[in-house]
Write a structure and sequence with these properties.
Layout: H1 5-20, E1 27-29, E2 32-34, E3 75-81, E4 88-93, E5 99-100, E6 110-111, H2 120-143, H3 150-171, E7 177-184, E8 187-188, E9 194-195, E10 198-202, E11 211-215, H4 221-226, E12 241-249
Keywords: Signal
Signal peptide: 1-25
Length: 250
Amino acid sequence: MAINRRNSHLFLLLILNYLSFPTMTTVISQSGVEFNRLKQWEELMRETVNCEQYPENPECADQDQYQRKPSYCLYAVNLRSKFYPTEEVSLCGRPRHSLPCQMHGGSECQLPPMEISEYDLLTLYVINQELQARILRLQSQQDTGLDLSLDIQREVEQIIADNVAWLCSRRCNNSSCEFNAELQPQRKGVGSITRMTSLVTEYPFFPGTRHIEIFLPIGSYEISRLLKKTTPFRHLAVSSLPLMVSCHKN
């Protein structure tokens, strides 16, 4: 989970680009929401899926999208509600490779995996925006009656799995541990864009002053239906939900 040092300055420029310009530029049309700064994935040639490299792809595995065998995951992660113990979800924490950027599509760039570094919160900010762009793209496809892109579904899974693996590595010092967190419901953000459900916890080296916020689309019924999984936390609609996060390193 590291960025090549020779590319670190280029990636910091990318981060500054995200921070300097609006992260979500949308155009409302009669056919729905079009994302004029997202790559047109339909224009890309569909490749044959390598199921050894991408076993989480819907074409490859007859398994739930977020749940994997423990041996497959770097971290087996469990999120459990403190107030409603029957409400919980298990996730797979697994590093990923770099992905093509969805946003700022006019410039070629690669979205690196999460890393443990002094810039990790800035990196996470960019990755959160990229994850949201992909999910909004899937929603747009669904709203317009198009087939959902398997490539984008696969990338959503990879980004979530990598973010969870980084979170456990950062909070548990590359070991196993448990820690407190909150699942914050999706809320209105800048303009008409809704910020996604987020998993929020303290940044380990700056308690009380810095927080880790990972977009985790598991609390919204609409998104859960889109991603073909159940909604584990039924009491999230009104306010934040305190969680116990368990990270078991395999």
